[in-house]
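## retry 2 of 3
previous attempt timed out at serialization; input unchanged, resubmitting
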Amino acid sequence: MLAFLYLMLLPSELVGINPTPMTAIGTEDQPDVLYKPSGVLLQEDAIYVLDNGHDKLFKFDLQGRLLKTLGGHGQGPGEFLSCVNMIAVDDSIWIADRANGRISIFRNDHYEKQIKTNLAPRNIAIIGDKVWVSDFCSLDVRDGIETYHFDGTPAGSFTLSLSRENWAGNNQATWNSAILCPYNQTKAVMAFTYDTYLGVFDNTGRTVEEHDMGDIYPRYDYRHKSGDIFPAGYAALAFSEGPAGTFLVAACDLETRTCNTLIQLNSSFRGILAKKEMPFSVAGISYSRDLKRIAFVTGDREIFIHQITK
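## retry succeeded, writing output
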């Protein structure tokens, strides 16, 4: 694979990221472990990978060796129908199961309990002192947010306020592509894989910034062909907080049918600190502020973890 030949040396110009990986998962020595990784959780002595294709949670050590498999396909306790995202809350793992409409909580590698939501949860993140859960974004509840205390009890719900008239993507497909992620502990960013809009919210859900990112990464028109796996109309595929107050975007390219342009933005979201072409499509990014580590999920179902240097 290109990533293997490349030895996964990230461009050194990326701010605060060691170019040499500390861990690799799913490479040539274990190619069939992962099918459709949908989330990575970095811990001090382990790496958890959520797989929406297998409907399982895999636990690896820091050398990338598989230690344990949790979950499985179904509707029973600890099973998943569409496990799309996860976070660590204190010493537990919360997993968003879109099709089951619930959050499944695991502790010490065992299923503990579930939280039944009024959403089809897609995104889950800690913003301030609450857990935010956002809907899959149907037109009826497209920007609905439910919040929870760390013990799992409900804290409230609200609707994010967006200036929809200021951007072009007010349609079903765009809202189904919403991605919510934390930024600088007390803020949340909502971005869209089908559009160039980016909104920043404080921990109460109040809009504090809105940006049209079209001059930094474009949106492509609908040009889907039969058998073409490239998502129609994609602008970017992955978003994440990065080191030293930066923000990372994996932008897409229509000609190559990949999302391998990694853009590192400053805290204003307007200044480009680095823009590098990766040898693979970046399907996901997970950042741990506490551990100073970052994980990249590739389109080849590989995962690379890097140490943060600042």
